[in-house]
């Protein structure tokens, strides 16, 4: 059982963040649950602090406990801000996706190297020129998501999967749709025809907000179904997604935990994620 702390004067420290369901931390010993607030409001849920392979990890249930937040209503800015406030500098973001190619059937693990944003209504920057509650005003800053995922994190995820005899797909494009509805057949065929690999609802703006906070971010996508245009069947159902996810959550957890163990110490990062802002004056102090 988690020890619950409300309004701590100082947060427990973590170095790595995992944004995903409660299935990833619920069996850990000595988990501390901490409610955190941010200038952007509360995150999806408490942060759950635990230790894995000697690393301090903060887990955050992306959809909240009981999965009550649909993808378009998740407070992505609060989620990433809360993790950074806790000391997190490297984030792993597992999520369920639909496969856009027949060969990417249920159970496929794909570690994307690109995303395409087809969302519509989400706050996707910290640097929008609007004042924060403390009166500070973020400058308008443009960061590059040309290569949106951390190379070191991707390497750790791929190595961890291979170590579990779960041959991952190395690279591919995650197209992120607004949801909560799934795609029409026409949309799905279009996504596939563009050469994109998998489709999901939560990969954006998570990755770009992490970049804006100079965090390493790695997406691990688990295919739970073939998207409507990639098969001749009835299209995807929510039940089907949950069933395949449940069947794979144990091995996804073991891969995540091995990936955590293989990530470099925050001070030893050699990727460029930690300098994504290039020393620009953002007008706000990152936590
Ligand atoms: Zn990185």
From TrEMBL:
Record's signal peptide: none
Annotated residues for binding of substrate: 201, 225-227
Reaction(s) this enzyme catalyzes, per UniProt: a purine D-ribonucleoside + phosphate = a purine nucleobase + alpha-D-ribose 1-phosphate
Residues that coordinate or bind phosphate: 22, 62-63, 202
InterPro entries from the UniProt entry: MTAP (IPR010044), Nucleoside_phosphorylase_d (IPR000845), Nucleoside_phosphorylase_sf (IPR035994)
Pathway recorded for this protein: Purine metabolism; purine nucleoside salvage
Superkingdom as given in the UniProt entry: Bacteria
Keywords in alphabetical order: Glycosyltransferase, Purine salvage, Transferase
MF GO annotations: S-methyl-5-thioadenosine phosphorylase activity
UniProt KW Glycosyltransferase keyword: yes
Site (Important for substrate specificity): 183, 238
Nucleoside phosphorylase domain boundaries: 15-259
Enzyme Commission number, as recorded: 2.4.2.1
Anything else known: Although this enzyme belongs to the family of MTA phosphorylases based on sequence homology, it lacks several conserved amino acids in the substrate binding pocket that confer specificity towards MTA.
Family (UniProt): Belongs to the PNP/MTAP phosphorylase family. MTAP subfamily.
PANTHER family given in the database record: S-METHYL-5'-THIOADENOSINE PHOSPHORYLASE (PTHR42679)
Subunit structure: Homohexamer. Dimer of a homotrimer.
UniProt-recorded name of the protein: Purine nucleoside phosphorylase
Species this protein is from: Streptomyces beihaiensis
Source lineage: Bacteria, Bacillati, Actinomycetota, Actinomycetes, Kitasatosporales
């Amino acid at each position: 059982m988690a020890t619950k702390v409300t309004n701590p004067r100082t947060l427990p420290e973590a170095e790595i963040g995992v944004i995903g369901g409660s299935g990833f931390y619920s069996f850990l010993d000595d988990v501390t649950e901490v409610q955190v607030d941010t200038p952007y409001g509360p995150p999806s849920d408490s942060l759950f602090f635990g230790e894995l392979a000697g690393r301090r990890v903060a887990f955050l249930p992306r959809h909240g406990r009981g999965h009550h937040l649909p993808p378009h209503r998740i407070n992505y800015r609060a989620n990433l801000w809360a993790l950074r406030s806790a000391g997190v500098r490297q984030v792993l973001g597992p999520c369920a996706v639909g496969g856009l190619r027949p060969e990417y059937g249920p159970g496929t693990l794909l570690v994307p190297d690109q995303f395409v944003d087809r969302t519509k209504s989400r706050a996707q920057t910290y640097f929008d020129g609007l004042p924060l509650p403390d009166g500070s005003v973020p400058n308008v800053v443009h960061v590059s998501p040309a290569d949106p995922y951390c190379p070191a994190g991707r390497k750790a995820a791929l190595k961890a999967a291979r170590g579990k005899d779960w041959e991952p797909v190395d690279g591919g494009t995650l197209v992120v749709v607004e949801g909560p509805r799934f795609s029409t057949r026409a949309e799905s065929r279009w996504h596939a025809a563009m050469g994109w690999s998998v489709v999901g609802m939560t990969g954006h703006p998570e990755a770009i907000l992490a970049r804006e906070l100079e965090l390493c971010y790695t997406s691990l996508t688990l295919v739970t179904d073939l998207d409507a245009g990639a098969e001749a069947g009835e299209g995807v159902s929510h039940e089907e997604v949950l069933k395949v996810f449940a069947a794979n959550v144990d091995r996804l957890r073991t891969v995540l935990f091995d990936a955590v163990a293989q990530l470099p110490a925050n001070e030893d990062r050699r990727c460029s994620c930690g300098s994504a802002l290039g020393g620009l004056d953002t007008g706000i102090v990152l936590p």
